[in-house]
Design goal:
The protein is an alpha+beta fold and 397 residues long. The protein has helices spanning 4-8, 10-20, 40-47, 58-68, 71-78, 91-100, 105-109, 112-126, 134-139, 141-151, 158-169, 173-196, 202-213, 218-248, 251-259, 264-275, 307-310, 345-362; strands at residues 23-27, 33-37, 52-53, 131-133, 284-286, 290-292, 295-297, 302-305, 367-368, 389-391. Helices cover 53% and strands 8% of the residues. The protein starts with a helix and ends in a 6-residue tail after the last strand. It holds the Pfam family p450.
Length: 397
């Protein structure tokens, strides 16, 4: 699952896997043998099964260390695993309850003016160019700026955040290892600053919740902040960039959306289903034998649930390999399912709606500057482009 062929086209790999068995063993990054759940029904069951644990204990960290292969990166990661994505109830319930209120639909709507303002600024900056890389000029900085607003990162520090998040997205172990200690140190400083001088932002509220009744340890506070940064930034970057690329590769669907912007909410859901930003959910581990689709998974086994595969399962979605922005997409698993359903889904949808609206309004003649086969996809759990070269307007326009 880390071959160049898989990185370029995971859908072909998962189609073959679903055909032979929706639950099967495979070899993951670093040579790790794991169980892959690729069918929709099986994935939905697995995502909600409490016997598939998310708790990262010392033994499981050793497995993750084998995947990463970089001791320095892993040492950094161990400091940042105490968050809700790596926990089961009751810890998960406690951690998630502190974050939930910031990511309701209503709370996310309060951020709309800021998202729209950031979007306009980025679109204005792009106007100076006929050609650009949409990922780096727009899709990367938009969610970064939104997260900085949400967390209350001071303006002078945001350039450093951009550098760290860029290193994280590079998938370059050396860059990540170099940036990791500085990011960890800064997050600790930022938490301490919010404790001394709280403001009207999410991080201040998390710090105050910890101070009020001890529900959040210092390690959990820093780890939760890190989780919000990584999960809230990288996934939205890829949703915007891969989503726009997908529309450009399907001009008839793009034309329908241009004619009727009322289709946009459904189009975003279809883009999430068709080319969602997460290929496989973070690893789970069986606490006892688990049977799925007639296959017995032994205890203490790592399990990868392939969201991108489940969303292309013809048993759930008719002609699943076809993009149709008007199709019913209810039940897609791009944001997961069960207690670990993505807490930031309302904000991600808001950012996508604002981003696509701005791009289509300002640059209706946008074109892809490379052949579809020349698009470079990044390795790892995310389904994300390395770049998206585009022409904003026709030559001489």
């Amino acid at each position: 699952m880390d071959s160049p062929e898989y990185v370029r086209d995971p859908h072909a790999f998962f189609t073959r896997l679903r055909f032979h068995s929706p639950v099967a063993q495979a070899v993951g990054p670093g040579g790790l043998k794991l169980w892959v759940v690729s069918g929709y029904d099986e994935a939905r069951l697995a995502l909600a099964d409490p016997r598939l644990s998310k708790n990262v204990d010392v033994a499981r960290r050793s497995i993750l260390a084998n995947i990463n292969r970089k001791a320095d990166v892993m040492a950094f990661a161990v400091d940042l695993v105490s968050h809700m994505l790596n926990s089961d109830p009751p810890d998960h319930t406690r951690l998630r309850s502190l974050v939930n209120k910031a990511f309701t639909v209503r709370a996310s709507e309060k951020l709309r003016p800021a998202v729209e303002s950031i979007t306009r600024k980025l679109l204005d900056d792009m106007a100076a160019h006929t050609e650009t890389d949409l990922l780096h000029a727009f899709a990367h900085p938009l969610p970064m700026a939104v997260l900085c607003e949400l967390l209350g990162v001071p303006l002078p520090d945001r350039e450093r955040f951009d550098h760290w998040l860029g290193a994280r997205m590079s998938n370059d172990p050396q860059r990540i290892a170099a940036a990791a200690p500085a990011l960890l140190g800064y997050l600790r400083e930022l938490v301490d600053h919010k404790r001394r001088a709280p403001a009207d932002d999410l991080l201040s509220r998390l710090v105050q919740a910890q101070s009020a009744d001890g529900r959040l340890s210092p390690e959990e506070l820093v780890a939760t902040t890190f989780l919000l940064l990584v999960a809230g930034h990288e996934t939205t970057v890829h949703l915007i960039a891969a989503g726009m690329a997908t529309l450009l590769l399907h001009p008839e669907q793009l034309a329908r959306l241009q004619r009727d912007r009322g289709l946009l909410p459904g189009a975003v859901e279809e883009l999430l289903r068709y080319e969602g930003p997460v290929k496989t959910a973070t690893l789970r581990f069986t606490t006892e034998p688990v049977e799925l689709a007639g296959t017995r998974i032994p205890p203490n086994s790592p399990v990868a649930i392939a969201l991108t595969s489940a969303n292309r399962d013809d048993k759930q979605f008719d002609a699943a390999d076809t993009l149709d922005i008007t199709r019913p997409t209810a039940g897609h698993l791009a944001f997961g399912h069960g207690i670990h359903y993505c807490v930031g889904a309302p904000l991600a949808r808001l950012e996508a709606h604002v981003a696509f609206t701005g791009l289509l309004d300002r640059y209706p003649d946008m074109q892809l500057l490379c052949a579809p086969g020349d698009l470079v996809w990044q390795p790892g759990m995310f389904r994300g482009l390395a770049s998206l070269p585009i022409r904003l307007r026709p030559p001489g326009h």
